[in-house]
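Re: nicotinamide-adenine-dinucleotide structure - here you go.
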Amino acid sequence: MRLLVTGGAGFIGTNFVRMMVREHPDIEITVLDKLTYAGNADNLADLPVHLVVGDIADAPVVDRLMSKTDVCVNFAAESHVDNSLNDPEPFLHSNVIGTYTLLEAARKYDVRFHHVSTDEVYGDLPLTSTEKFKPDSRYQPSSPYSATKAASDMLVHGWTRSFNVRATISNCSNNYGPYQHIEKFIPRQVTNLLSGRRAKLYGSGENVRDWIYVLDHCHAIWEILQHGTVGETYLIGADQQLSNRVVLAKILSRMGQAPDDFDSVADRPGHDRRYAIDASQTIAELGWQPQYTDFDAGLIATVMWYQTHRDWWQAEKAAVEANYHKRNQ
Ligand code: NAD
Ligand code: TDX
């Protein structure tokens, strides 16, 4: 099988490509990645994969690569909500035009296409309820990021129904693990503490995220590619709902800091209150199950990864924090 992985030099894409090389060395992998600030070619440097540096919205490049593949998994996207509040344009380009460009080429060459999406397309849930997102929950995105991801999902639906593109979609909850960019919540706090800065909690910290270890997400995607039904949406989550305040307390404790050793900072505008995924349909249909269900163990492994991979993040740290600081002025 020839597999094209777009966005394969980012957080989840890197974990997916590394998993595939480890567990399915017979598969021929090409990565198409623009290497934005979030992509890092070094993540893949030791692997027998072909990296093409390019944009998923560049039709000639996409056409050439799609003509030579059997399957395409699309991880490529602008992925950070805070950045989308600051400047939405790159989100429209990569998430909407990029997905459209991939779909047109998948249609032309009849390539099996899997689109990696997010639970944020469903908006948020009240803090007090026990409700969870289901595959037929209403789309009501809150941010430019989630609005563009919702738009990309809709494009996939349209191309599947009208043009018979053999596509599936997965909507996953918050991932954590190695190779996540230090702008994101967990790695930001861990690297703040490792670099002598204080942790930063938005608003009240009561907002809840449903955490999944990145490899569980990657295994689910591989199951969908092998056994999923074209036209279907698969929800992926590990049922690990925790408030940001609780996650931060675990990080502080693990890293030997006092429980109150953090700054409460301005809240994110439009901040989604709670996400929760009901993955029962995915589990029933595919037999996939999350394996890394001990959040504390996964968090410790993640903290250790950032402790032992300073060279991966240190050069960027000051600029990422300066960027946050500028926005909060
Ligand atoms: P990331 O920001 O770490 O990586 C994105 C990658 O895509 C980078 O390597 C970047 O260089 C590349 N890219 C961006 N625009 C591109 C373009 N126009 N052409 C080619 N490459 C481009 O993101 P991530 O956290 O790994 O997320 C991957 C996908 O999974 C995204 O589609 C995201 O919406 C989705 N997702 C993420 C999470 C999460 O918790 N991180 C949860 C659910 C879904
Ligand atoms: O410094 C911070 N302090 C803080 O309290 C940061 C960066 C975040 N937060 C809060 C905001 C959120 O409630 O932590 C929570 C998680 O924030 P992010 O890491 O920015 O993730 P989120 O906005 O939930 O989106 C993530 O999960 C869904 C990914 O970035 C998306 O790509 C994915 O679709």
